[in-house]
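Reopening: MFS transporter still failing for me.
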Amino acid sequence: MPNATSNGKKVLISVLLGTFTVSLNNSALNLAVAELMVTFNASATQVSWVVTIFMIAMAMTMPLTGYLAGRWGRKTVYLMGLCGFLAGSGLGALAQHLNGIIVARGVQGIAAGLMIPLSLSLIFSAYPREQRGRASGVWGFAVMMAPAIGPTVGGLLLEISHWRALFLMNMPFAIVGLICGYRYLSADSRPTRRQFDLAGFCLITLGIGGVLLSLNGVETLSDLLRPATLVPLLLGAIALTLFIRVERQQAEPLLDLSLFNHHRFRYSVLLASLQSIILFGCILLIPLWMQNTLGFSPLTTGLVFLATALAAAACSPIAGRCIDRAPPQWCIGLGLIATVISLIGLGTLSAATPVWIIAAWMGLRGIGLGFAYLPATTVGMKDLPEQQVAQASAMNNMARRLVSSLGVVALSVYYDMSVRASLDLGTSYSEASASALHVAFFVLAGIALACLPLAWALGRSGVSPDMAMPSSSNSQPQTSLQGRAK
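Support: Ran it again with your exact input. Result attached.
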């Protein structure tokens, strides 16, 4: 596709409506945990499934998107996902019991698993390669902005209305997204008929489900060593190992692992996974620091996170234009340097630090996110053949979720062990917590620093001959593309 289609902006808006709805719903619904505990007389563990089931269902559905998109077309599968999300929202709003809400969230998770990997694929199909960074930057703005305003919207709705409103608010966005998607998204001309890889699907589902289920709620070493945690974790790891072996032998694999032979894609997945540890590590550590150590309220903590989200959303479109016009390593490197500085700043905080300085460091952290996080993913995928973008996006998302889950568990276990050791030596809790958090922030800064060589390699890797093909190669069978990639 030498030039952007005339309805490129309409395609972008159509996809934004769907992804914005998913992101807004997730961030807003997190505020309802306390109210759901009171309403249904449930424990925190029971209500936590409202959040957990969504993440697990989404991660277990993502591997299917490449096959389903090839079988029925990206437009059809994306709109199916949006319909499913609309249905899940309706079920949630009508639920009379906590189990009904959990089922509704599972339906939403399955729907999101179909939509998210196809988002960039649909956007890329409407823009030439030299404009995909700019388009993905606008998409990144919406992805970052939704979590920023979600807690505010959720808190306002809970204040003036009912928790059911958090499900109902999705429906107007989803309906408009369906109308725009049906009208403006282009149908794939030649869906491919591939044999379904049942063995691969069973293994990847058991693997991702087992790992994510076992790691949910792990905060201490004793939690990690419990049979209820350790057994599914080991079974999940074995299933993922077997999945890799099986996929390498399949003529038509569920996920084409030969995509990792593309240097840019491989480096981008590594970068995105390491940055996910930093992203979710900060989500874990900042509330511990502000609420447990400094005694700030949840509202103040939320406003500090708002600084990160707003800065990231503002920088994402700028970064998108930068990676279209200049070598991407400079943009991503700038973001990583900002990340390193912000994490070092967070690691030097003390009880006397005013909240505005914490917000300033978090704002700089948002600049780092905007220039490095999503751009790394975009650079890794924007030169892939369009048929493979959905699979590449799914693999990128799954890798980020698995690696970030492991990273957050490692940080949680370290924090617990460090605080316990300090308390045994007679240190006060606030001092013990501060000491553990300082080290954790410096470790995250070290991870960001280690990403700099990867960013340089990502930018210097260039486009391989197999990838430098016109988008019109859509008409070629997918098996020939896979064969050349191998």
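The two ends are 25 Å apart (CA to CA). If you still see a failure, please send the error message rather than a screenshot.
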